[in-house]
């Protein structure tokens, strides 16, 4: 029996990268997984892979930047399966041109904050009543190395820092209902969000040099793979993580220690 047998888990941004890796691991551990993103083809690929391996999954197309629809994956999970046990707020990234604080538009700044931070609230608020009623729940917010230090654009870093405060206060507010809330922070990780060519061009170096610079920021001197986050995400979602709440945990190879 897997660690998440009988549980229902929602993973936002589940079509690629870290979200996809977590969704696959949850399914392998026995959970029924609802994955969401804006891209149907990515979601269908994840669901097909999970079902081929004998798991159960449902794809929900939802735009995390739309406050009225960001909670749709949770609503559909409850409608289809009667409950939600685990919510992974994995959506994140940057919107528009936000690298330079002198030229960043208000619209791009606010959209990046919404994507990396506010969308977590829009989704979580839909999940909390079901978790409260069953006296059990796990909310896992995917942060960043930028949740604890500098190293990204101003709106991205501000949003990821805010996610830490959100995690801690929410954990305090809902602990009495049996709901745990934690923030899982990756460092440099090989996902489609990391555009090595753009990073290299911005720094005036080759792609290989850009990758080496990224690797040099961690004690293990490497860029991690998305699957390496899935073990900690499973611990936080499962029974062995019952005593962990309000915490900011890193799986990053020792990023900027």
What this model shows, in words?
- With 257 residues, the protein is an alpha/beta fold.
- The chain has a single domain, classed as NAD(P)-binding Rossmann-like Domain (Rossmann fold, 3-Layer(aba) Sandwich), CATH 3.40.50.
- It has 8 helices and 7 strands, in the order βαβαβαβαβαβαααβ.
- It has helices at 17-28, 40-52, 72-81, 106-134, 154-174, 196-203, 207-215, 227-237; strands at 8-12, 32-37, 56-61, 86-89, 137-142, 179-186, 248-251.
- The protein has a 7-stranded parallel beta sheet, with helices on both faces.
- Strand 2 (32-37), helix 2 and strand 3 form a beta-alpha-beta unit.
- It is globular and about 50 Å long.
- The chain starts with 7 loop residues before the first strand and ends in a 6-residue tail after the last strand.
- The model has no long low-confidence stretch (mean pLDDT 96).
SSE blueprint and pairings:
Elements: E1 8-12, H1 17-28, E2 32-37, H2 40-52, E3 56-61, H3 72-81, E4 86-89, H4 106-134, E5 137-142, H5 154-174, E6 179-186, H6 196-203, H7 207-215, H8 227-237, E7 248-251
Parallel strand pairs: 1-2, 1-4, 2-3, 4-5, 5-6, 6-7
Helix pairs in contact: 1-8, 3-4, 4-5, 6-7
- At CATH's second level, what is the architecture? 3-Layer(aba) Sandwich
Low-confidence stretches: none
Q: What's the Cα radius of gyration?
A: 18 Å
Strand order of the largest sheet: 3-2-1-4-5-6-7
Mean pLDDT: 96
Main β sheet profile: 7 strands, parallel
Distinct helical segment count = 8
What percentage of residues falls in helices of 4 or more residues?
Answer: 40-55%
Named CATH topology: Rossmann fold
């Amino acid at each position: 029996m897997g660690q998440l047998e009988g549980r229902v888990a929602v993973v936002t941004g589940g079509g690629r990268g870290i979200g996809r890796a977590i969704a696959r691991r949850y399914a392998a551990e026995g959970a029924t997984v609802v994955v969401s993103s804006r891209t149907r083809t990515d979601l269908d690929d994840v669901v097909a892979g999970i079902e081929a391996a004998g798991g159960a999954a449902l794809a929900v197309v939802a735009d995390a930047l739309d406050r009225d629809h960001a909670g749709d994956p949770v609503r559909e999970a409850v409608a289809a399966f009667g409950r939600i046990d685990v919510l992974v707020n994995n959506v994140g990234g940057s919107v528009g041109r936000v690298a330079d604080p002198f030229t960043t538009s208000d619209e791009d700044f606010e959209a990046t904050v919404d994507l990396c931070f506010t969308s977590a609230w829009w989704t979580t608020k839909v999940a909390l009543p079901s978790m409260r009623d069953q006296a059990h729940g796990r909310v896992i917010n995917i942060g960043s190395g930028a949740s604890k230090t500098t190293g990204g654009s101003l709106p991205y870093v501000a949003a990821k820092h805010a996610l830490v405060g959100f995690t801690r206060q929410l954990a305090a507010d809902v602990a009495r209902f049996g709901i745990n809330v934690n923030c899982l922070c990756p460092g440099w990780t090989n996902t489609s969000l990391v555009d090595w060519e753009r990073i290299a061009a911005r720094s005036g170096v080759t792609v290989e040099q850009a990758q080496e610079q990224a690797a040099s920021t961690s004690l293990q001197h490497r860029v991690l793979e998305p699957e390496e986050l899935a073990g900690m995400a499973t611990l936080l979602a499962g029974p062995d993580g019952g005593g962990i709440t309000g915490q900011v945990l890193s799986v990053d190879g020792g990023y900027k220690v």
